[in-house]
Amino acid sequence: MRLLVIEDYRPLQQALTKGLREAGFAVDTTRDGQEGLWYAAGSEYDVIILDLMLPGMDGLEILKKIRSQGRKSHVLILTARDTVEDRVAGLDLGADDYLVKPFAFEELLARVRALVRRAYRRKNPQIKIKDLGIDLTTQRVWRGREEIQLTVREYALLEYLAMRAGQIVSRTDIWEHLYEFKSAASSNVVDVYVGYLRKKIEQPGKPPLIHTVRGRGYTLGAKP
Amino acid sequence: MKASLRTRLLIGVVSAVLLLLSLFSIGIYTAIRAALLGQFDVSLVSMAQVLAASLEVDANEIELELEVQQMPEFQDRERPTHYQVWRMDGTVVAKSPLLENSDLPRLEGSVIKPAFKEIKGKGGRVERVVGFSFLPRLSDSNDKPPETESLMLAVARDSTEILSQLSFLRWVLLVASASVTVLSVLVAFMVVHQGLRPLNAIAAEIAAIKEDELSTRVGAAAAPRELLPIKDRLNELLSRLEAAFKRERRFTADVAHELRTPIAGMRSMIEVTAARDRDKDEYEKVLSDCHVIVENMQTMVNDLLMLARLDAQQISFQTEQIRLGELMSSCWRPVCDKALQRQILFENQIGPEITCQSDPKYLSMIFSNLLGNAVEYADDTGQIWATACRMDDSVEVAVSNTGCHLTGEQVSQVFDRFWRGDSARSETGTHCGLGLALVQRLAKALGGQATAELQPGGVLTIRLKLPAKPCV
């Protein structure tokens, strides 16, 4: 899942980026409002973490602009402003969540996960596809009763496919949601990672879960 | 508390009505009394003149004509009219038989100007007496006229009726005045109540304003002209209050923001770092970052405390003679390295002869803030210079730096607490916008003032005007 962090206080911005990346998210980040708007307008981020008092452009202004452009990214406002009016203003302008600084990083992670689930209309943090089980919270994966160990990237790929289980997911979609803007990787790496993932979750004697749809992408679950 | 407006108006109106009624009643009473008595007196005098005319001096006899004596006025026992005639020596010449033993008073009047008197008659009756001296008519039969001799005449008539009429009039006037007064209380009450209605309306509006709703204004749409100044001043006061409250709320929110942000940064750094095992370098980096944040927070808390103490005037100053050039140089040292890194040139142009009587500790705080600020906002390879000049009874110190990107309007805000040029924090994460606010308040506390000025070429100059001699 790909996130955008717009936060002008450097220590916080760095800690957030590091923590979120370690939690398996692809994170783009900026400390400037104008630049933040440019990022947000350019890609379909799953979640945008937005500070309000920003140089260049105010956070609420950014929110208003990306909503008027029709961007569906879920927005979590992360700010030191805690009055009811501030919260109401933020939520009424189209934010999906509001967290006041200082905050527990665990809580931020949980809220981001909740927003991601909401983005893919999943209420249940346990996903079950045939005998494949995924726990979105602990990021553990099982095939039948056997737990499968995945790398961070492999897990991210599986999670994205599972969120959109039953749909055909294009390489571009995968690339856009799993790789950061500044990442050097090209969309070809998607095929490589799908290969790695297949090796780990497909088991002999069981029906395959990841299907290739020629010229269109991949799908997880039933064969289309 | 003074009596209420309503009570005062009521008392005023009713007293005025009472006073006017009294004057009016007394006037009416006096006029009617004068008219009645005048009429009475005229008839009394004419009666007396008839009597006088009917007196005849015959030889040494003085006679009252019989028909006059027989007039019904002199016979009426119920309402008698008495007369009595004297010679000038006091011997009685003639007298109403009805007077019996009593006498009428002798009054010193003349025919042209008779004298009047009121006396108590028999049986508690009040009688009015007219008296005058006159020359009696001589008898026709007298051949040799005797020496004319003046006589004195007094005629008295019962005036009880007039007095009772007057007393009735007094009662009528009293009762009428009392009823009008009572009525006027009622009418005044209603009029005052009606008249004070706009005042009550405004009072109710004001009473309804709560401390958290200062944005409301007193509308009083139909307020009478007299209340408009009150309404306007009140609304002005409300505006000022609202602005002050807003400023304070803004300040509190800013303090919260400025303290929460670094705490959030540290907390996230610590939590993210603690989430897994890391190598030594990473821990060291996090610790040193946290240390910088803590130092910045400490500076900010100290600045805030200083601002609060300055606002509460809790700081006492110890003044001494200060060489401004030396102080400026010593304040430059802490920021010297930072300036060097960014190749900023500093020139201290303050001559050694310029001194000022002030508190060295707080003045150096001002200079440090000015220089720190200049280094923060000057462009790389820019310049900073400090100048000073002596005025009549003050010293002006100015610190300028190049590379100012602020607009004129922004420059007017540099002394606001927590205001900072837009990009400042993202560059360094340190300055929180209290430095210049502190400078301004310290300057004021030291008896001077600080002003900011934008000069062509992006040069920002902060001028500090200090009294040469202490006034604190």
Note down, in words, how this protein is organized.
- The complex is a heterodimer of chains A (224) and B (472).
- With 224 residues, chain A is α/β, with parallel strands linked by helices.
- Chain A has 8 helices and 11 strands.
- Chain A has helices at residues 10-22, 33-42, 59-68, 84-92, 105-119, 152-163, 171-178, 188-201; strands at residues 2-6, 26-30, 47-50, 74-79, 97-100, 126-129, 132-135, 140-143, 146-148, 210-213, 217-220.
- In chain A, the strands form 3 sheets. Chain A has a 5-stranded parallel sheet, with helices on both faces.
- In chain A, α6 packs across α8.
- The longest helix of chain A is centred in the middle third of the chain and has 15 residues, at 105-119.
- Chain A is elongated.
- Chain A starts with a strand and ends with a strand.
- The model of chain A has no long low-confidence stretch (mean pLDDT 90).
- Chain B has 472 residues and is α+β, with helices and mostly antiparallel strands.
- Chain B is built from 12 helices and 15 strands.
- In chain B, β5 and β6 (126-134) form a beta hairpin.
- Chain B is rod-shaped, with a radius of gyration of 54 Å.
- The chains are: A alpha/beta (224), B alpha+beta (472).
- Chain A binds chain B through residues 8-12, 14-16, 18-19, 22, 31-32, 53, 55-56, 80-83, 100-106, 108, and chain B through 253, 256-258, 260-269, 271-273, 275-276, 289, 293, 422-426, 429.
Q: Write down the secondary-structure element order of chain B.
A: HEEHHEEEEEEHHHHEHEEHEEHHHEE
Individual helix count of chain B: 12
Distance between the termini of chain B: 41 Å
Separation of termini of chain A? 24 Å
How many beta-strand segments of chain B? Answer: 15
Uncertain runs of chain B are 423-429
Largest interface: pair, residues per side? A-B, 28 and 27 residues
The helix content of chain A is 40-55%
Note the quaternary state here: heterodimer
In spatial order, strands of the major sheet of chain A run 2-1-3-4-5
* Radius of gyration of chain A over all CA atoms, rounded: 18 Å
User: What about the largest sheet of chain B?
Assistant: 5 strands, antiparallel
What percentage of amino acids of chain A are in beta strands? 15-25%
Shape of chain A: elongated
Q: For the largest beta sheet of chain B, what order do the strands appear in spatially?
A: 4-3-8-6-5
The strand count of chain A comes to 11
Give me the number of helical elements of chain A: 8
Give the biggest sheet of chain A: 5 strands, parallel
Residue-averaged pLDDT of chain A: 90
- Specify the helix fraction band of chain B: 40-55%
Q: What is the H-and-E element order of chain A?
A: EHEHEHEHEHEEEEHHHEE
